[in-house]
Structures are given as C-alpha cells and as structure tokens.
Amino acid sequence: MTEKKVLFTIFGATGDLAQRKLYPSLFRLYRTGHLATSFAVIGTARRPWTDEKYRAIVEETIAYLNPSEQEAADFSSHFYYQAHDVTDTEHYDALKDLATKLDTKYQLEGNLLFYLAMSPSFFGTIVEHLKSQGMLDSNGYHRVIIEKPFGSDYQSAKKLNQEITNVFAENEIYRIDHYLGKEMIQNISAIRFANNIFESMWNNRYIDNIQITIAENLGVEDRGGYYDKSGALKDMVQNHILQILSLLAMEPPVAFSEKEIRTEKIKALESVRVYSPSEVKDNFVRGQYNAGHLAEEKYLAYQDEPGVADGSTTETFVAGKFAIDNFRWSGVPFYVRTGKRLTERGTRINIVFKQVPVNLFKAEVGTTCEQPCLDPNILTIYIQPTEGFSLSLNGKEVGPAFNMLPIQLAYRNSSEVIENTPEAYEKLLLDALNGDGTNFTHWKEVAQSWRIVDVIRQTWDEDTAELPSYAAGTMGPQAAFDLLEKDGFQWIWQPDAWYRERNLL
Length: 505
Ligand code: BG6
Prior knowledge:
Low-confidence stretches: none
Number of domains: 2
Domain Glucose-6-phosphate dehydrogenase NAD-binding: 10-187
Structural class: alpha/beta
CATH class of the largest domain: Alpha Beta
GO molecular function: glucose-6-phosphate dehydrogenase activity
Organism: Enterococcus lemanii
Function: Catalyzes the oxidation of glucose 6-phosphate to 6-phosphogluconolactone.
Number of strands: 17
Bound molecules: 6-O-phosphono-beta-D-glucopyranose
CATH superfamily of the largest domain: Dihydrodipicolinate Reductase, domain 2
Number of helices: 16
Helix content: 25-40%
Active site: 240
Strand order of the largest sheet: 16-15-14-13-7-12-11-8-17
Oligomer: single chain
C-alpha cells in the first residue's frame, strides 16, 4: 500500500466532531498504513492550546482503540496546533508559514486537505482567505471537505456554494454526508446491481412501497442549541434520507464510477416530486416528543432539554411520503420517517413487494381471511446497528393443512465483522485522499434536496395548527401511522409493538 502524503488542516480542531470522529479515523488510517511518515495535521480553533496540549487531547480521543504508548506518541507527534481567528487575515499568514514548514519537514509534496468542521457561517470566509493569503499556491492537490449542514435552505446553500466554488473546483469539494460512508449504505448498490432477482423486479410492476426509517432512541443530548434551529427535517431528511432514497431509486449506472453514479443520483432526485403546500399537508407529518418512558427509563420532554427555547415548535420527528415521477417509480410511495427519542435506535430499509396476482391459498369461505392472506415478500436492508439483509417469503406450514407461513432468509454481519468495519469517517477520509468523490454529495444533489425540503419547511412555518406530539419512547405521533394506513399500508418495522404488548410503553 502506498502511503498518502498530505497535510490536513482541520478548522474546528477542538470541537466534538474532530474529537469523536476525525482523530480516531485518522488513527485507524495510520494503523492500516494509509498514513505513515509523510503526513501532518494542523489543528486550528480559537482556543489558545499548545502543541503539547493538542497532542494530549488527540491521544485521549484514540485511547479506546488501545494503542501502545509509543504508537500513540508517534501518531500524535504529527499534530500541530495553531490558535486561529478565521476572520483575521494575519492568522492565515501564520498558518501558511506553518504549512510550508511542515511540507518540507514531512515531504508532503504540496498536497493539502482542508477539513471545515465548524459553524457553517464561517465556511465562506475561510475558503476566501485560504485563497487570498496564498495558502493554495502549493504544487500538490488542494481539496476541501465540508461538514453538514450545507446551507439552511436552497438560497443559503446556493450562496455558500458560490463562495466555495470561487476558490475550489467541484472536483476538489467533498461535501460530507456520513451516511454514504456506512458499510450497509454502500451495500445497497451491491444488492441491487449484483443480483438479477432484485434488479429485474426493482420497479413499480413488482414493488408496492418502500420504507426508510432512521430511528434514534437518544434525545438531543447537548446539541439542543443547534437542533432547535434545525429540526428533524433539515437535520436528517434533507441529507441522509434523500441520499438513501436516491441510491434506492436511481437507474443502474453505466459504470460503477463517481461520474456515472452521481449522474444517476442527481436524475433520481430530480424526479422526486416537489410538492405544493397542499400536497405537503397530505403527505408529511411532524411531531415533537413529550415526556415519556420506556419500561423503567423515564425521559424529559424536548421542551425541557438544555438549549431548547421555551415554547419551541421545532419538530423532533418527521414522517412523509415521497413520490417519484418517472417510468420506474410512478405510483410507488417512498415512505420515510426519522426522529429522536423513539423506541429503538435503528436504520432500516424495507422494500415491500406486491402480492401474487391470484392467491391460490385463500382461506375457506366464512373465515375472516377473504383477501389474500399472504404476507408480502419484503426485502429488508439493515443499516445499523444490525448490519445485514433479510428476505421474507411465504412457505407451507408443516402439517396436513395447506397453511401459509412467512419464512425469513436472513443474513447478518457477525459482531466481529461489525467491530472491524471501518468507521464511516475513516472510509470517507480515505476516499478524499484518493480523490474519489463518489460517496460525497455533488452540488446538484444538495440543491435539489433543498428544493424538495424547502416547500415542506415553508408550509409548516405558515401552519398555525398546534404541533402534534408523541410520548418519548414511542415511534412518533399517531399521524405517522395514519399516513400509511390511509394508503392501505403499515410500517413494517414497529419496535414499539413489543413494548406495548408487555405494557412497558
Ligand atoms: C447527524 C445528525 O447528521 O446524524 C444527528 O445531525 C444524528 O442529529 C446523526 O444524531 C445520526 O448519525 P448516526 O451515524 O448515529 O446514525
């Protein structure tokens, strides 16, 4: 394996993301040899840390990976700290001097990777200064990784994109959606395009509906301040959910390459119907959690979480139905839901297939089962925490009668495999080092996702009706169940049912 020669400059180096995700991911890349001797990291933020302090923090963040003392020290010796005010031009000069010094010391060949992991309001200022202060004059490549949120609506995203593209070309910009680095999200393409039984049926002739659930059992934790301004729609639907939807809905690319996959994802997103306000009311519901409990565990109401404004009307739950207006998907609802403080943590995709055209196994006349009593075939893709997939089929129950029985063919990654699965950020960092933007979002995807989401947001902002609520620990407000019921469907994954049956909810 050839090691990568690169200087990382991390803006927001003292922050939560850097500590929880970036340093451990860099360390894993170090362990696997992708980073070895020729790399350096400049961490910048406002706090006046020294290199020693910075290195000690970096070592703390990787402690759970059990490095030896020597290994941790060798790794952290590549880290340098530069206190920095992103609006002050002179600070960029200091940054440039340090970058030049490190380039010589570690022989980095002028390769620069900038990571913007701080308040998006500074992204534009930072990239502008990188250019004006000559930080991008080196000979190697110049790439920038940008954390979400990329804007807060279409207009602000467009402005931000303009600022960034004034400095970096589209193929130098890596907009992060960490879901795209997840093992089982990447597996969607494998399942679809390596199995003829699925791809040949992947359309409105055979599929009844598709369900995407990203459920979290955590509340807003210490992110109340950010979340209260964002809400579930912008925090999860605009990015992660629409990205998953585009991977499920896209046409097969002509090659498994960045360019071809992106082209198809963009087309898929452009086929998602942008609703009118009245369609939003029919097809999207939201909710906010009240106090609740799950078995012995008691939860606060969202309104009582730290950082949340009094009387906040921010939604902590969204469920909705997307329509895709193209030949493949016309008439197939894509139901999505996501929320905080739900019953269980889990991201799952359910592909629900249509029933057989004639049910030969109808129950005898006079019983309640007049309709086809068969369960639908369902392909479930488990994204997390379980990783794997299952297919439910109907078979005959053993015995003299001809009774149907749903049977599950299931494959789950073992806990050992899951343990060794590269973290999403590790994969994405490596992709960016390799110059591969496949698992990052192109501007056109971001733009279209905002267009889809903006009308939902605007409709809700103008809606004076009271915000529906749900008890913490449940799977969202009743309206989220009604949404499918009125179409004759139901959510396939109902982790709350188990608790309700036992009176624990
Ligand atoms: C982030 C959201 O993008 O994704 C968080 O801002 C959310 O609110 C998180 O908790 C979920 O990510 P994961 O990887 O834990 O499913």
